[in-house]
Write a structure and sequence with these properties.
The chain has about 400 residues and is an alpha/beta fold. About 40% of the residues lie in helices and about 15% in strands. About 40% of the residues are buried.
Length: about 400
């Protein structure tokens, strides 16, 4: 089968997020299929952008075929980002002959977070007599409406709403990364039998913990030498990650449990402000470390004692969440404290830690105290429940096969 994954923001090991197209493509190639990932030259999610000077650039990333389409750069969610979306979709259609005539796709997947890419993807599927799949990361335009306060009469929102409805009505199958979206999709035109839930997952081959040493590991070793219990957060420092809650937790914990220390690894728009908050509160139990390569994350997480992930109390989470970060935490085999209110909660489902309501600083401190008071064997058993749960349900070997098995029923 020839498969095209259309994902404006597609990344890979050399570029950073997002990784799902890369992992699925690798698994499908291993299964004997030919795969092409089509991405834009600029994405706000990547840590590094591909080097492209022409309109189209072909690339191979660890055996996966990529095609980059030249798009403009942007900052934030203004007009330049909207222009980047339109440009990507236009170039996908305009250059389709050069891209696909020699490839002849059997399955075309529109997977760019925003639904506008469904229009050229559907037209290309019709042109090449291919099956059209719409893959949903977040519910657009509901996400910008509920998060950004946009009116449903905003011209941008109205275009996105039309594109979402178009996708649900015309797709041969719809894959959702969120578990509780079916009724919303049906209300916008989807037929029930076209729906399948396939979350984000883990590539097990990347979870070989190498015996490496670096400045991060050396720092954690020093904390352990001082008999500290390390509470770790590894990921982006953005508003959506609710790290103000964690700083508040650290302030409470400094008075209650001197063994607890908080290590935040990563970068992002909120990092400088969080640093100022820690300084203003005169906290001595919070440490910030720079980002680390994806290859080094398994070892880093293995040296922490408890892992933390928090969310805001957002009504969008009634449709579910599919966080890569949480899956990484669980693969590390460490207990997790999860501050969340969502339709699904992997920590609760797998009993690999303690879940508390979002923003409940006292509840988080109590959870950390409880877990830190367990024996090493008890903490290990708790963490390993999460790892086994991920290996069984969130392994990309399993997810990639499930994806194609469902696609074949719609062909």
């Amino acid at each position: 089968m020839n498969i095209v994954i259309v994902n404006h923001y597609a990344g890979g090991p050399a570029f950073g997020m997002e990784f799902r197209p890369y992992y699925l493509a690798k698994k499908w190639k291993k299964m004997g299929h030919d795969v092409m990932v089509v991405g834009g030259s600029f994405s706000h999610l990547r840590s590094k952008q591909p080097d492209i000077t022409s309109t189209i650039k072909r690339d191979t990333i660890e055996g996966v075929n990529y095609v980059w389409l030249k798009t403009n750069s942007y900052i934030g969610n203004g007009a330049r980002r909207a222009m980047s979306m339109v440009l990507f979709c236009w170039r996908l259609w305009y250059h389709s002959k050069a891209l696909l005539d020699s490839f002849k796709p059997d399955l075309i997947i529109a997977s760019s977070t925003y639904p506008l890419d469904s229009i050229p993807a559907k037209k290309l599927a019709d042109k090449y007599n291919a099956t059209f799949c719409f893959e949903v990361h977040d519910l657009w335009p509901l996400s910008p409406m509920e998060l950004g306060g946009y009116s449903k009469y905003n011209p941008f929102i109205m275009v996105m709403q039309w594109a979402e409805n178009f996708a649900y009505k015309t797709a041969d199958l719809v894959i959702s990364m969120l578990p509780n979206t079916l009724e919303h999709m049906i209300a916008h035109g989807l037929q029930r039998d076209k729906f399948c839930y396939i979350p984000n997952g883990i590539a097990t081959e990347e979870w070989i913990i190498e015996n490496e040493s670096n400045s991060h590991i050396d720092f954690l070793n020093k904390l352990h030498a001082d008999h500290k219990v390390i509470v770790g957060y590894v990921g982006g420092h953005a508003i959506s990650n609710a790290l103000d809650t964690l700083i508040g937790v650290a302030s409470l914990a400094e008075k209650e449990n001197s063994k607890l220390v908080f290590v935040l690894v990563g970068s992002g728009a909120e990092k400088d402000r969080l640093l100022r908050s820690v300084t203003a509160l005169s906290l001595s139990n919070v440490f910030f470390l720079p980002p680390i390569s994806k290859r080094s994350i398994p070892k880093l997480l293995s040296e922490m004692d408890i892992l933390y992930l928090g969310w805001h109390n957002n009504p969008l989470y009634r449709f579910g969440i599919s966080p890569n970060k949480l899956i990484d935490y669980m693969m590390a085999g460490k207990p997790v404290v999860h501050s969340v209110n969502a339709a699904n909660d992997l920590v609760e489902e797998s009993s690999c830690g303690i879940s508390v309501p979002p923003g409940d600083q006292k509840g988080i401190v109590d959870a950390l105290n409880l877990i830190s008071g367990l024996s090493d064997a008890e903490r290990h058993a708790m963490g390993m429940r999460g790892r086994q749960y991920v290996l069984k349900n969130y392994n990309y070997d399993f997810l990639a096969e499930k994806f194609l098995d469902f696609a074949k029923t719609r062909m």
